[in-house]
Design brief:
This is Succinate dehydrogenase hydrophobic membrane anchor subunit. This protein is mainly alpha-helical. The chain has four helices and no strands.
C-alpha cells in the first residue's frame, strides 16, 4: 500500500526533467526569434505575417507555448504545494491555475492559428 502525502511538492525526476526539457524548448525558440529579428533586414509587419503564415512556424510556436504552459504548471503547482497548507485553498489555487493555463492555450490557438 502506497502512503501518499497531501502536502509538499512532487519533487522527483519527472518534474525536474520536465522543467529542463521545456526550458530548452523555450530557449531554442527564443534564439530562433532573436535570429530572425537580427538577420531580417527591416523586419516589418509584413515580414512577421509571412513568417507566421508558414505552417511549420505555427507548429513550432504551438509546441513552444505548450512547453511554456507545462513549465508554468510544474513550477506554480509546486509553489502551491509547498506554501499553502489549507487543502481547500490549495485546491482552489490549483483549479484557478489550470483555468488560467487553459485560457492562455485557447487564446494562443486563436492568435497563432486564427481559429475560434
Amino acid at each position: 500500500m502506497v502512503n501518499r502525502h497531501v502536502v509538499g511538492a512532487h519533487y522527483g525526476l519527472r518534474d525536474w526533467l520536465v522543467q529542463r526539457v521545456t526550458a530548452v524548448i523555450m530557449l531554442t525558440y527564443t534564439i530562433g526569434v532573436l535570429a530572425f529579428i537580427l538577420f531580417a533586414n527591416g523586419a516589418s509587419f509584413e515580414a512577421w505575417q509571412a513568417l507566421f503564415a508558414c505552417t511549420w512556424v505555427k507548429i513550432v510556436t504551438t509546441i513552444t507555448f505548450i512547453a511554456l504552459l507545462w513549465h508554468a504548471w510544474v513550477g506554480v503547482r509546486d509553489i502551491w504545494m509547498d506554501y499553502i497548507q489549507h487543502i481547500g485553498v490549495k485546491l482552489t489555487m490549483h483549479v484557478l491555475t489550470i483555468l488560467w493555463l487553459l485560457g492562455s492555450l485557447i487564446y494562443m490557438v486563436k492568435v497563432v492559428w486564427g481559429v475560434l
